[in-house]
Amino acid sequence: MQESLFAPGHRACAGCGMPTAIKLVLDAAGPNTIVTSPTGCLEVTSTPFPESSWRVPWIHSLFENAAAVASGVEVALKKFRKTDINLLVIGGDGSTFDIGIGAISGMFDRGHRITYVCYDNEAYMNTGVQRSGSTPFCAKTTTTPTGKLSLGNPRPKKDMPAIAVAHKVPYVATASIAYPVDLRRKVKRSLKADGPAYIQISAPCITGWSFEAGDTIEQARLAVETCLWPLYEYVDGVLVGAKKVRRKRPVEDYLKTQGRYKHLFKAEGGAEVLAQIQAMADANAEKFGLLD
Amino acid sequence: MMKVVEGSYAIADAVRCCSPDVVSVYPITPQTHIVEHLSEFVADGKLDCGYINVDSEFSSLSSLIGASAAGARTYTSTTSQGLALMFEVLYNVSGMRLPIVMTTVNRALSAPLSIWNDQQDALGARDSGWIQIYAENVQEAIDLTPQLYKISEDPKILTPSMSCMDGFILTHVYEPVEFLDEEKVREFLPPFRPEYVLDPKNPKTFGAFTDPSWFTEFKYLQHQAMQRSLEKIEEVSKEFEEVFGRGYGGLIDTYAMEDAEIVLVTMGSIIGTIKEAIDELRSEGVKVGLVKIRCYRPFPAEALKKALKDANVIAVIEKDVSMGYESALLTDLKGALYNSSIRTPIIGFAVGLGGRDVGIKHIRSMVEKASKVKDAGIESEFEIFEVKPECL
Amino acid sequence: MSKCGVRMVVEPGSTEITKTGAWRTFVPVFDHDKCIKCSLCEIYCPESCIHQIEGNFVPDLDYCKGCSVCAHECPREAITMVLEE
Ligand SMILES: Cc1ncc(C[n+]2csc(CCOP(=O)(O)OP(=O)(O)O)c2C)c(N)n1
Ligand code: SF4
Ligand code: SF4
Ligand code: SF4
Ligand SMILES: [Mg+2]
């Protein structure tokens, strides 16, 4: 029995997608790895003093500085000629897309050999489901509530992988906990890259998205099958591959199963929004060549 | 051998002598020359360290958290806006007990924007859990550098420290200084060997989250370490003097204190001017002396009680204001003496804000005000000194 | 670091002392005859608490939070969630 590098006993909600993402990432990276994490659900649920779920060395400092902390780890290890250790940042979308983006840009720009993994649950979950730059169009959060004048988050999801690509980092990919083989392969590939890498993993949050118990992996799968979460890879700035979607499903199949989109099926204007979201999915299918 | 160099160069050289493994700095006037000289040393192979060209001060100190936890001796420096940007990280570093050493060049905080010296920046970081020692001149700032590493890295202390030096006045001055001897520094300063580092062979968790059942104990132990450092600072100061032949007193120093009735209390480069003013006044028969605060945090309350017990009037002169009250050192000093038998009146002056020149005549005027207190009692407990009359 | 137990570092994997099985309302029951050993339940379980023991996949009930992800993902419907008394 191989022991998971992410121990049980952590305090993530039952059915949270994030621990599965962490487990898969560590599986691929192996024990010769050092992880830096920012503040967020992962950090809080995995390291309640005096306990820790981490079986690899792990460090947390603040919400917005994980990329900088990891940069320091990398430079120190280089100084000590220990260059064979895998370095990961694993952080949420809030710290990645918003408050920590300056530090991430610096880390990319300086070319540190670090894989930055974002487990993306599309909001600030740890503080109670507030909008982040990753929150998709018209999703309901506690800071983008629905109301007479609102259909939820008014802005589309920020294209963080494109921002990473624009930094000319050697490896950028999206992944999903519903596709573990693909995910592990991408992590392994990123660690071979000669420089920074960015991997963004779809990790549904049962509490923030409000879907049925047991549905976590299915949610992640539907995001891919609707083409709302394309699985692709950029190597040296070039799109080298995207996972084909065998049977493209309408976005409603995904949206209707989640509380955060419930209003779109009732409120006035919801139908137009659904059409807009469908158009986004279609654009992804086109851009990444997801369909045969 | 004495050499005439710019203050910033001298500091960069002192840092080089301490052999940091990782240096991470971001430029800001008037600290920039330190950054530039350090990069030159690295480029010339004179300093073998990881040098991180960071994207901000927030990232510079953050990156040192990672480096320090990986076992590196680390260095950064900043000033003013940069220090303010680091605010959150400062507390994090001390709470994680990482012995990072920083040169804090003292400069005013915006707004209005000012690149000139006062000490508002470091005073604002008073409660962040960093040891703060203020240098009077470039030589003292040089000599502080290895001392701070020795203090901070002591396994019983493990507390970050900053060497504070006045911007421009010390960073940009050219004066003759004695450089550190690398061999001697190696003897004086043992290598940094933390008990735990980030290491896959011994995979510990750093920076866990605590609930109310533990937080108090973390803070208690941190406070204890700070208290312990009072003794360590004295000890290291003596040791430095033995090895290098230069001493500055430990936590505090004194000047012309024999029979002094009026005692000025201050810190930083203004001391040079004050000493000159005291020499003048003494020759005129005015019994004035000086207590120089080197170590502001931890606060040397006991040493101050001893030094001030015979004063008739105490005047605190400092370059900061805690808006809505008075200056920080003034408050701290009054607090330290309150439960003692010392009942000496204390007044305070905020001077030199945003680089306003403080000359001998200003010191004389403050001494004059203090001497009136001796006879007539306190008229004004605190004032921002020499405000344009039309503003009053 | 100190006698009172405050330490700057924490031991790896030490959340294991917390038995999150206490959170559970429903318990996964595995039908080993239906199982095709695809190991998907093990891969997806957020608690890393499904293990293959002597060939069979079994949940470690010390940690299983009863989230029913395994039951939903099992391609053979070999796992049923049962209300725990
Ligand atoms: C400087 C700062 N601002 C705000 C917070 C509060 N905060 C802690 S975690 C968090 C949200 C985390 O969101 P994300 O990164 O998406 O991780 P998640 O909790 O969703 O997994 C926020 C806003 C903080 N800790 N520090
Ligand atoms: S709030 Fe969401 S992301 Fe956070 S632990 Fe719960 S399910 Fe996971
Ligand atoms: S119910 Fe959830 S926690 Fe329990 S074994 Fe199945 S997947 Fe794991
Ligand atoms: S998912 Fe179902 S079939 Fe696959 S190993 Fe688990 S119990 Fe067996
Ligand atoms: Mg999030």
Q: Quick summary of this structure?
A:
The complex is a heterotrimer of chains A (about 290), B (about 400) and C (about 80). Chain A is about 35% helix and about 15% strand. Chain A contains eleven helices and ten strands.
Residue share in β-strands of chain C: 15-25%
The biggest beta sheet of chain B reads:
7 strands, mixed
**Residue share in helix of chain C:** 10-25%
How many domains make up the 3D coordinates of chain B? 2
> What is the residue-averaged pLDDT of chain C?
96
Poorly predicted spans of chain B? none
Q: If you consult CATH, what is the topology of chain C? A: Alpha-Beta Plaits
What is the CATH C level class of the largest domain in chain B, in words? Alpha Beta
> What separation lies between the terminal Cα atoms of chain B?
51 Å
Number of strands of chain B: 16
Number of helices of chain B: 13
Residue stretches of chain C low in confidence (pLDDT < 50, at least 5 long) are: none
Strand order of the largest sheet of chain C: 2-5
SS content category of chain B? alpha/beta
Greatest chain-chain interface? Answer: A-B, 45 and 44 residues
Task: Give the number of helices of chain C.
Answer: 2
Radius of gyration of chain C: 16 Å
Could you describe the largest sheet of chain C, including whether it forms a barrel? 2 strands, antiparallel
Q: In total, how many beta strands of chain C? A: 5
How is this structure best described in words?
The complex is a heterotrimer of chains A (292), B (392) and C (85). Chain A is α/β, with parallel strands linked by helices. Chain A has helices spanning 18-29, 41-46, 66-79, 93-99, 101-110, 160-166, 180-192, 206-209, 216-225, 251-255, 270-288, and strands spanning 33-37, 58-60, 86-92, 115-120, 146-147, 150-151, 171-176, 197-202, 232-235, 238-242. Chain A has an eight-stranded mixed β-sheet, sandwiched between helices. Chain A has a two-stranded antiparallel ribbon with strand order 5-6. The N and C termini of chain A lie far apart (40 Å). Chain B has 392 residues and is of the alpha/beta class. Chain B folds into two domains: 2-244, Thiamin diphosphate (ThDP)-binding fold, Pyr/PP domains (Rossmann fold, 3-Layer(aba) Sandwich); 252-391, Rossmann fold (3-Layer(aba) Sandwich), CATH 3.40.50. Helix content of chain B is 41%, strand content 19%. Chain B starts with a strand and ends in an 8-residue tail after the last strand. With 85 residues, chain C is α+β, with helices and mostly antiparallel strands. In chain C, the strands form two sheets. In chain C, strands 2-5 form a two-stranded antiparallel ribbon. In chain C, strand 3 (50-53) and strand 4 (56-59) form a beta hairpin. The mean pLDDT of chain C is 96. Chains in contact: A-B, A-C, B-C. The B-C interface holds B 96-97, 158, 196, 203-206, 208, 214, 217-218, 221 and C 1-2, 4-6, 8-12. Strand 2 of chain A pairs parallel with strand 9 (205-206) of chain B. The structure holds thiamine diphosphate, iron/sulfur cluster (SF4) (3 copies) and magnesium ion. Residues 30, 35-41, 57, 74-76, 78-79 of chain C line the site of one iron/sulfur cluster (SF4).
